Task: structure prediction
Amino acid sequence: MNNDLLPPAMIAIYPGSFDPITLGHLDIIERGSKLFDRVVVAVLRNPGKSPLFTVEQRLRQIQTATQHLPHVEVDSFDGLTVDYANLIGAKVLLRGLRVMSDFEKELQMAHTNKTLSKEIETVFLATSTEHGFLSSSIVKEIAKFNGSINHLVPDHVAAEMYQSYQNQAPKQ
Ligand code: ADP
Result:
């Protein structure tokens, strides 16, 4: 077959803070990787926030969590998400939707991004029901008080969280 007839690879970026990556994020990444040729998980370098983990730690955590997924890459960026998407030739911004409050914020962001770059589409994946309550902030709250987080984040992330709060992992 003539290669010129093949459609261009469809690249999606999945932008976020991922402080840290949760099983909810991972679910979106795994499902997204079945829809697009490449998914780039893009960690926003946001100097305004005071995160638990540095960007480099988060990149490593995501890399380890996604190493079983061949079409998934990990990167960081600063500035506008649409500028980064255009830079790497991504046509899709992948986002996850949990609750109604996500919807309002996400719709506003999708509309804003559309005004900034007409070529880029935002695609939402609904959270899997078991992850509907799950956020990085909730996981941090639980870990801070030495609660069990092993069912919420990948094992290596749980270990780093207990270490960073200087807790011992609770007995299951
Ligand atoms: P941000 O700071 O941009 O909200 P996050 O790392 O918190 O970054 O989230 C990145 C994306 O992942 C967002 O689209 C968010 O709605 C989605 N997301 C977060 N947690 C979950 C979850 N439990 N299930 C599905 N999507 C989620």
Notes: Strands lie at 11-16, 38-44, 72-77, 92-97, 121-126. The first strand starts at residue 11 and ends at 16. The chain is about 40% helix and 20% strand. The pocket of adenosine-5'-diphosphate is lined by residues 16-18, 22, 24-25, 28, 95-96, 98, 102, 127, 131, 134-136 (CB under 6 Å).
